[in-house]
Design brief:
Chain lengths: 348, 293
């Protein structure tokens, strides 16, 4: 099922949580809504589900306008961050709930419901736990039951709100792989919300990066990492260093020195240079490059992170060096980013 | 945690734990609490039963089987049987509205639910006299249409409903607020309608709290004196509830009779208390089992 969000705005009281958001979700796609807290990603998910109604704008399921439909009518599977399993029901009853509450005409008989529940339990690899109560399950198991319960109603779209948010790192990684497998096996159009970029980049076909109630960029993991289209995305996805620079004569300038990077076609004026700390080229001395003195250095796994003080400007940037690089405190290092991007300073 | 061997040298292990008072202080505190309870709660209760049996078991039974007493017992049970279910419904509805929805005037409604607790019961009764009495605007109309509210069973029920309204709601609001709306949202997303959501999801989540509230509500409904006294009219055999009957007997210098009826009320209270403790035991276990979920 294809989902289209069209120019949606959502206000709580008068506070806008989403400004004019549009998004196309392709059928069968696994898509991640990624952003810091307060970016509106959960609001967008709840709008797609029908748990909230948009203030302005429309939401289409396929060709149907679903904006006016309630969550009951939209037939979506929603998995809540804190599972929201019914604590007084067994695992099997939880999974069968959506079938049990159907009107007589479309309700399957009781043992068909039971059979379907145990098939779903097989799918989420929890066979044999039908009779357990939620309180008797681990966090990861509860999340699997919640997913099985959402899938039991054969939803058109599967929506997951921070599905792994309350789990520890080990279980998260495991469930991530498992969710990918389930998605490939069932082919549901799936949208999940996360604030964990690693999760989003690894799991999703496309990532929707959100900030302050707006969509910043939509793209594959490669696109949002390699071609960030805004300072926010560059800073939010992966590690980055930034420096305030100036564009003049199609050149980047740090204070009054050119740094050997050309910005052909960019408008003159103040701007910010972004680059990845690990993607730099070290130079011996330079005329027209970046150079700074080592202010701090620390070992991170297989590499060394060095904080450089650039010029006399008290600007600090981070770069990555090989572990055996002979950089010492106060020593001078010259480098040039291999890949970089420059964004004009807003409002200038 | 420090090595326990370090503490072994200390002769008084308990007082060494650092978080409790010294032994004399603890004994003193417990002593005061028990003395207070004995003096103000246990002693009067014992006295009620002693006074009731002063003239012997035969007189006790005779008082309880008197026509007026029997009618008072019947009326009290009737009033409780009407007002408790009503407040069960009102209480759940009010608690559901307050705990699960956001709307304008919610804070006001919450305050309103508490009103019967903060108003003197006598005032609660007087309100109905002002509303339905002969001097009111409604009074003559009611009289013309043959509807009796004041000095009749409907008035007593109304006053009791008013006074006992907060019990169920007060018990449920914090419970439902703590549980949030997640379970309900999940149920609706799975296709349940409002009634199914309430019946299969909300009600099972609140059942112990609800039972507890109903018990308290019932105890008060049976024991209410002030509000009922104002609207009842004290017609023997007709509009006398048990608490009112106790007063009448006592005013007639029939102490043994008054205490006999009083002992019945006290007995009801004790049964309620026992049930409540039982529920607390059960309720506590349930809460502990579902905590952290």
């Amino acid at each position: 099922m294809q989902v289209r969000v069209e120019n949606v705005r959502k206000e709580f009281d008068t506070f806008p949580a989403l400004h004019d958001v549009s998004l196309d979700i392709r059928s069968g796609e696994l898509i991640a809504l990624l952003g810091p807290s307060g970016s509106g990603k959960t609001t967008l998910l709840r709008l797609i589900a029908g748990l909230e109604q948009p203030t302005i704008g429309k939401i289409f399921f396929g060709e149907d306008d679903a904006s006016e439909k309630s969550i009951r009518e939209r037939n979506v599977g929603f998995v809540f961050q804190h599972y929201a399993l019914f604590r007084h029901m067994t695992v099997a009853d939880n999974i069968g709930f959506g079938l049990k509450v159907r009107p007589n005409a479309s309700r399957p008989p009781a043992d068909e419901i039971r059979k379907r529940a145990s098939r779903l339990l097989d799918l989420v690899q929890l066979s044999g736990l039908e009779k357990r109560y939620p309180a008797q399950l681990s966090g990861g198991q509860r999340q699997r039951v919640a997913l099985a319960r959402a899938m039991a109603i054969e939803p058109k779209v599967l929506l997951l709100d921070e599905p792994f948010g309350a789990l520890d790192a080990q279980v998260r990684r495991e469930l991530r792989r498992w969710l990918r497998e389930i998605h490939e096996a069932t082919g549901h159009t799936t949208v999940f919300v996360t604030h964990d970029q690693e999760e989003a980049l690894e799991l999703a076909d496309r990532v929707v990066v959100m900030s302050q109630g707006r969509i910043e960029q939509v793209g594959t993991a490669d696109e949002v990492y390699d071609e960030p289209n805004s300072p926010f995305v560059y800073g939010f996805i992966g590690d980055s260093s930034s420096l305030p620079v100036k564009i003049e004569d199609d050149q980047l300038w740090l204070a009054d020195r050119p740094i050997g990077l050309s910005a052909a076609g960019a408008p003159s004026g103040p701007a910010t240079l972004f680059f990845r700390p690990h993607d730099v080229e070290l130079l011996d001395g330079c005329s027209g490059c970046l150079a700074g003195t080592v202010a701090a250095s620390r070992r991170v796994a297989g590499t060394k992170r060095v904080e450089l003080e650039i010029g006399g400007h008290r600007e600090r940037v981070e770069i990555e060096l090989p572990v055996d690089h002979p950089s010492a405190q106060k020593s001078r290092i010259a480098f040039r980013p291999r890949k970089w991007k420059v964004f004009p300073t807003a409002g200038a | 945690m420090a090595d326990p061997v370090l503490f072994a040298a200390d002769t008084d292990l308990e007082s060494a734990s650092g978080i409790t008072e010294s032994r004399p202080a603890r004994w003193a505190l417990m002593g005061i609490a028990f003395a207070f309870l004995a003096l103000f709660l246990v002693l009067p209760l014992v006295l009620v039963f002693m006074e009731a049996s002063r003239k012997g078991l035969e007189y006790f039974l005779q008082t309880l089987t008197e026509t007026d007493t029997r009618s008072a017992i019947r009326l009290t049970l009737t009033v409780a049987a009407i007002s408790v279910p009503l407040n069960l419904v009102f209480g759940v509805a009010a608690a559901w509205a307050i705990a699960k929805f956001e709307f304008k005037g919610k804070a006001f409604l919450t305050t309103l639910v508490d009103l019967p607790f903060s108003v003197s019961p006598v005032i609660s009764g007087l309100v109905y006299v002002l509303l339905f009495g002969a001097q009111s605007t409604l009074g003559p109309w009611l009289k013309d249409n043959g509807i009796e509210i004041l000095f009749a069973v409907p008035g007593i029920v109304l006053a009791t409903v008013f006074v006992t309204f907060p019990f169920v709601a007060r018990e449920l609001i914090p419970l439902m607020e703590a549980q949030g709306t997640g379970d309900e949202e999940a149920a609706i997303s799975l296709g349940a309608n409002g009634w199914q959501t309430f019946w299969y999801v909300t009600l099972p989540n609140i059942k112990w709290g609800l039972l507890y509230g109903v018990l308290l509500c019932n105890a008060r409904a049976m024991g209410e004196f002030g509000a009922v006294s104002v609207v009842s009219g004290h017609i023997r055999g007709q509009t006398n509830t048990m608490p009112l009957h106790v007063e009448i007997l006592y005013n007639e210098y029939n102490a043994a009779g008054a205490f006999a009826v009083a002992s019945l009320l006290a007995g009801l209270a004790l049964v309620t208390l026992a049930l409540k403790s039982l529920l607390e035991l059960r309720y506590g276990a349930e809460l502990a089992a579902t905590r952290g979920h």
